[in-house]
Design brief:
Layout lengths: L3 H10 L6 H13 L4 H28 L20 H7 L3 H4 L4 E4 L6 H14 L4 E5 H13 L3 H10 L2 E5 L10 H12 L4 E6 L13 H12 L3 E4 L16 H12 L1
Helix pairs in contact: 2-3, 3-6, 7-8, 8-9, 9-10
Keywords: ATP-binding, Nucleotide-binding
Pfam families: IstB_IS21
Organism: Desulfolithobacter dissulfuricans
Length: 261
């Protein structure tokens, strides 16, 4: 009698139904290679562990909310040789997360700030960490909406507990009250408890200017910068524009005639 029909309900009860995906192949392999029962069982368990690991990885990637799948493997360090590759590869170990430190990535538009931030988030997910990528505008909009529905504390607590929070485009838009208070509260909750990556077009010396309340801004930035790693990007923009196509000869002659008329 074939054991498969009897196995299916039992595997489902044990939440091991994924084993069915490779059971037939592994069973044939065990017969061909005359495997011991324990070796056959070990292969099935390894398959199940690999499946669950991949499923958790895929779930974390979806929850992270990355704009796109940016990794360090596809970042062109040669485009701007001044970028400190050694520093970024050291950050890729995610040792800064053990230190509960922030990573601040600053530089002009198009120099790869968002790419590197998302790539570091990808590295954290590979290590089994939960990551959330968001922009300053989206983050503050969510907190404002939560305040309107009396769920601010719950939303703030969720943001405070994520292993790695990535805030993109800090200071791109000036903060208004109570946005500056929201940022202050969030940074305060995460301070020395969780790591945060922040990208900005502003120089670090200009960050306080984004806050309407200068005292609140000073306190917030002081917490952000304490023990933080700063990555300064400079050079050409990766966002190159394509040259416009040259007009055909007939089109040029047509324009000339039109201008004479």
């Amino acid at each position: 009698m074939h054991p498969m029909p009897e196995l299916i309900p039992m595997l489902k009860q044990l939440r091991l139904s994924g084993i069915m995906d490779s059971l037939e192949i592994r069973n044939r392999q065990a017969i061909d290679e005359k495997m011991a029962y324990t070796d056959f069982l070990a292969l099935l368990i390894q398959d199940e562990v690999a499946r669950r690991t991949q499923r958790k990885f895929d779930l974390r990637i979806r929850r992270a909310g990355f704009r796109n799948q940016k990794t360090l493997e596809d970042f062109d360090f040669s485009f701007n040789p001044a970028i400190n590759k050694a520093q970024i590869m050291d950050l890729a170990t995610c040792r800064f997360m053990e230190e509960k430190a922030c990573v601040l990535i600053v530089g002009p538009c198009g120099t790869g700030k968002s790419h590197i931030a998302q790539a570091l988030g990808h590295c954290a997910i590979r290590q089994g960490r939960d990551v959330l990528f968001t922009t300053q505008t989206k983050l503050l909009g969510q907190l404002q909406a939560a305040r309107a529905t009396n769920s601010y504390d719950r939303r703030l607590n969720t943001l405070a507990k994520v292993d790695l929070l990535i805030i993109d485009d800090f200071g791109l838009k000036p903060l208004r009250t109570p946005q500056d208070e929201d940022i202050h509260d969030l940074i305060g909750e995460r301070y020395e408890r969780r790591s945060t990556i922040i990208t900005s077009n502003l120089d670090l010396s200009e960050w306080r200017d984004a806050f309407p309340n200068k005292l609140l801004g000073a306190a917030t930035i002081d917490r952000i910068r304490h023990g933080a790693y700063c990555v300064v990007l400079d050079g050409k923009s990766y966002r190159t524009t394509k040259p416009l196509p040259k007009p055909q000869k007939k089109e040029v002659e047509k324009r000339v005639k039109s201008s004479k008329n």
